[in-house]
Amino acid sequence: MVKETSCGAVIYKIENANPLFLLVKSVKSGNWGLPKGHMEKGETEKETAVREIFEETGIKQLKFDNNFRQEDVYIIDNEETTKLGYKIEKHVVYFFALSAGNEILEYDKKEISESIWVNFQKAKELLLFHNSKEILSLAYKKIIEEGG
Q1: CATH number of the CATH domain containing 88
Q2: Which residues contact 66 (CB under 8 A, 6 or more apart)?
Q3: 32 vs 22, 63, 97, 112, 131, CA distance in Å?
Q4: Which pLDDT tens digit goes with each residue over 17-52?
């Protein structure tokens, strides 16, 4: 089994006293998700998250919450991995970051077809995977507990 690591973040901004979350839509799968991407050799998890967030959203100004790090681990076993002859143990590390919120969203159109800011309920509806919804819920709870 091959191990792969990706890093990203739950990104939010406050608009009219309400938190909005940034989701990106994958060109490859057509699914909405949180911005993330593969870790490159020599990078730290946070360096990967910052680079991938910029590549997928164009956002540069982020304030990371140093007390939030969630890891999602799952096995990829599909038609593609069968052809390769091995399964992939995928680790996805998510941080939590506040965006200045005034940046124009720009993204790599080869990877991302759309990006949107949505409220918590809409984000939970759009996210496909249970683990992503759970991580989003933890971030939302933190915002509520800390008063934005």
Answers
A1: 3.90.79.10
A2: none
A3: 10, 23, 18, 10, 13
A4: 899 999 999 998 899 999 999 999 999 999 999 999
Q: What is the DSSP letter of 25?
A: E
Tokens of 1: 């089994």
Which one, of 99, 11, 74, 7, lies nearest residue 44 by Cα? 7
What pTM did the predictor assign?
Answer: 0.89
- Say how far apart CA 132 and CA 134 lie, in whole Å: 5
Beta bridge partners of 38: 6
Number of domains in the chain: 1
Asked whether 142 and 70 are in contact (CB, 8 A), the reply is no
User: Range of 21's domain?
Assistant: 2-146
Residue 92 contacts by C-beta under 8 Å, 6 or more apart in sequence?
Answer: 5, 6, 7, 8, 36, 71, 72, 73
